[in-house]
Amino acid sequence: HIIRYTYTATNGCAAFAEQPIVVYAQPSVSAGPDKTVLEGGFVILDGSGSGNSINYLWSPNSSISNNQIPAPHVSPVNDITYQLTVTSSDQCVNSDQVFVKVLKTPLIPNAFSPNGDGINEAWVIEYLDSYPNVDVAVFNRYGQSVFHSSGYSKYWDGTYNSKPLPAGTYYYVIDRRIAGTKKLTGWVMILR
């Protein structure tokens, strides 16, 4: 690009000077799509960039294998947003972000008491709602289904067909429907 500077004196005389100037292009960057990782596991970020001899820098530098490469392994403990910043040799900068959701291991209580006192009225499984396609099935001791939920939009309240079930032991199968996870099985007691 050519820059021209023109000066006009009070008497009307004018003069100009021109000088070429280089405008460096901003580097491109992508932190990649948002990711999901199982608690205790890792996932590889899909960062990329282009420009004149670019350098990569991920931040925060937390639970990350190498914060200066485009595709590091990350193993966060909690949900986190990472930012990828690329800097060209011309000192031009650009950045992008990616969100990593940590799917925590569900905390499954082994008893609840749907007796109307307002305490432990439903079988509430902490962290299960973060698994969007989870399948929850509960059976009585004869193997008959007494509760089923695709997704975790409602808690089991100890009823079947809107009628209270008797106190006792029931058996569950929870399929988180995430690659690399096993079905969770066990028992839960209804206390009255």
- Tell me the β content: 35-45%
Largest sheet: 5 strands, mixed
| Unreliable sequence segments | none
* Residue share in helix: under 10%
Mean pLDDT value? 95
Radius of gyration: 30 Å
- What is the terminal-to-terminal distance? 82 Å
Tell me the structural class: mainly beta
Total strands: the figure is 17
> Element order, helices and strands?
EEEEEEEEEEEEEEEEE
How does the overall form come out from the CA principal axes?
elongated
Descriptive notes:
The chain is elongated and about 105 Å long. It has 192 residues and is mainly β. The strands form six sheets. The chain has a five-stranded mixed β-sheet with strand order 11-17-16-12-13, with no helix packed on it. A four-stranded mixed β-sheet has the order 4-10-9-7, with no helix packed on it. It has a two-stranded antiparallel ribbon with strand order 1-2. The protein has no helices and 17 strands. It starts with a strand and ends with a strand.
